Amino acid sequence: MLRRRSLLAAPLLPMLGTLPATAQPVAGGRAVRVVVPFPPGGAIDLLGRLVAERLGPALGQDVVVENRGGAGGILGTDAVAKGPKDGTVIGVIGGATLTAYPTLYSRLPFDPAKDLQPLTQITSGALVCVVNAEVAARRGWTDFRALVAYSKANPEQVKMGSSGPGTSSHLCIEAVNSMAGARILHVPYRGGGPAITDLLAGTIDMMFDVTPALMPHVQAGKFKALALSSKARMDFAPDVPGMGDFADLGLGDLDIVAWNALMVPSGTPEPVAQRLIVAIRQVAADPAFVARLKPLGYDVVLSESPAALTAQVARETPVWKRLVELSGVKLD
Length: 332
What we know:
- Residues 1-23 form the signal peptide.
- InterPro entries: BUG, Bug_dom1.
- This is Tripartite-type tricarboxylate transporter, receptor component TctC.
- Belongs to the UPF0065 (bug) family.
- It comes from Muricoccus roseus.
- The protein is an alpha/beta fold.
- It folds into two domains: 7-124 and 258-327, Bordetella uptake gene, domain 1 (D-Maltodextrin-Binding Protein, domain 2); 126-249, Periplasmic binding protein-like II (D-Maltodextrin-Binding Protein, domain 2), CATH 3.40.190.10.
- The chain has 13 helices and eleven strands.
- It has helices spanning 43-59, 74-81, 95-99, 101-104, 112-115, 133-139, 144-153, 168-180, 192-201, 215-219, 270-284, 287-293, 306-327, and strands at residues 7-8, 32-36, 63-67, 89-94, 116-132, 158-162, 184-188, 206-210, 223-228, 257-265, 299-302.
- Strands 1, 2, 3, 4, 5, 6, 7, 8, 9, 10 and 11 form an eleven-stranded mixed β-sheet that branches.
- Strand 6, helix 8 (168-180) and strand 7 form a beta-alpha-beta unit.
- The chain is globular.
C-alpha cells in the first residue's frame, strides 16, 4: 500500500549541468516564503527549514520559513493556495493533504487539484511508532505486540498524539485499531511539535509519526521505537520491525509511507516555476542535505516532472480513500 516508484535525487545529478553559473532570483529578488502548515518543532518544520536555508543561496535571494499551523495543515495549505503567483510562496505539503483530505473532509477551503501547482516531491519516509520510555517500562510495553495487547485489555487508556486529524499519523493508528482490534485513543494536536512536547512529559503515551522529529529522542533514550508503518524494515533503524513482522496481528498488508512535496499557487508562470525547480534540484543534490535527512529516516526523492507528481497523486488518492473508509474517520 502506498508504495510507488519515484526518481531519487542521485539520478538527477546529470540534469544539474543546466544550472546557471550565477543564481537567478525570482520576483525581482523579493524574499521567498517557505510556508510550513504546522507549528515549529515537527518533522515538516525541520524539512522546511533545511530547504529554506539552502534554497536562498541557490536562488540568490532571502528565503524565510513561515509557520501557519492549524486544522491538520489545512490553514497553511490554504494560505499557499491563495498566495501570490509570483514565486514568493512555496508550500511544504504533506502527501496526505493531497490524497486523503478530499475524502476525509466534506468541505475544504481549497481544491488540491485546481489551486495548488506542483513543483516536485522532496522526501519520503516511513512513520515510526514511539512510546514514552518511562511509561513503556512501567506498563510492560516491551514491543508492539505488548502495546496492542495492553490497549485491548484497557480500552482507550493508551493515548496516541498525532500532528492533526486526518494526517498520516492519525490514519495509521486508525488502521491499526481496525485491522488489529487495538483500542488506542487518538489525541489530535495542531502539529507534531506540541504532540512531541506532551509525549516527552508523559501527558500522552505514544505517537505514530514521521521519523525526523522522533528519532533524536529515541537515540537519547526518551522514546522507545516499537514499529514502523512500512511493511519492511528500514536501513536507518534495522532493529525496528515493520508491519510485515506483525502478520499475526492482522497487519501484514499495512504499508504506509509518508511523503512531502513542494508546491506553489496555481497560475504561477511556468518560467518562474521552472526556476524554482532548478534551484530545488540543486538543493537536493547537496550531499549535506541528503546526509542531514537520511539518519532521521527521510529519503530525498524528487519527481521526474510536475506532471509526474500530479500522476502520483491521482494513483494514490484511491488507495488513501480505501484507508480512510477502513478507518471509519470522517471530518467536517
